Amino acid sequence: MKTVTVVQADKNEIEWINSKYAEIGFVKSNYDSEFIVIAKVGNNNAGLGRLVKIDEKNIELGGIYTFPDFRGLKVAENIVSNLCDKNPYKESVVWCLPFENLLGFYSKFGFKKHKKDVVPQEVNKKLEWCNSDDKYDKEVILLCKNK
After folding, report:
1. For residues 67 and 57, what is the distance between their CA atoms, to the nearest angstrom?
2. Domains in the chain and their CATH numbers?
3. Residues 57, 24: contact at Cβ < 8 Å?
């Protein structure tokens, strides 16, 4: 099996990162307020992921994307595991807005369906945006976990 490695992105890679996110309709990254990683298989970039700082108590895990040529190699699993393990922020709640069919995948990392009323406004707005105007062909759900 091919080995997947995950490295923190360099600031000079942000244009390439955002071009990859643009290809799939994801929100652009901002290097100054995010912890972004790139998964590699050998010397090839195989996927992306990020932690977005919302405020002092909340971050969002998102932008998890495995490039088509590398699917089936556990790239997304390596990205999410790396982001959860190397989370540089001290916030207590990690939010995640995946497609509903990925609930089982994110559950492996401790994420659960959100059941409380208090959701950061930025997260709630993004959830509404994701599920509006047929942006995606799948429903986006709200998950969270304590760090």
Report:
1. 31
2. 4-146 (3.40.630.30)
3. no
Q: What is the pTM of this model?
A: 0.90
Between CA 49 and CA 55, with CA 50 as vertex, the angle to 5 degrees is 160
Residue with the two structure tokens 């047929």: 134
Residue 84 makes CB contacts below 8 A (sequence gap 6+) with 61, 94, 109, 110
What is the 3-class SS of 75-127, one letter each residue? Answer: HHHHHHHHHHHCCCCCCCEEEECCEHHHHHHHHCCCCEECCCCCCCHHHHHHH
pLDDT by residue for the chain (147 residues), tens only, comes to 689 999 999 999 999 999 999 999 888 999 999 999 999 999 999 999 999 999 889 999 999 999 999 999 999 999 999 999 999 987 779 999 998 999 999 999 999 998 766 888 889 888 888 888 877 788 899 999 976
* Residue in the block written with tokens 């509006």: 132
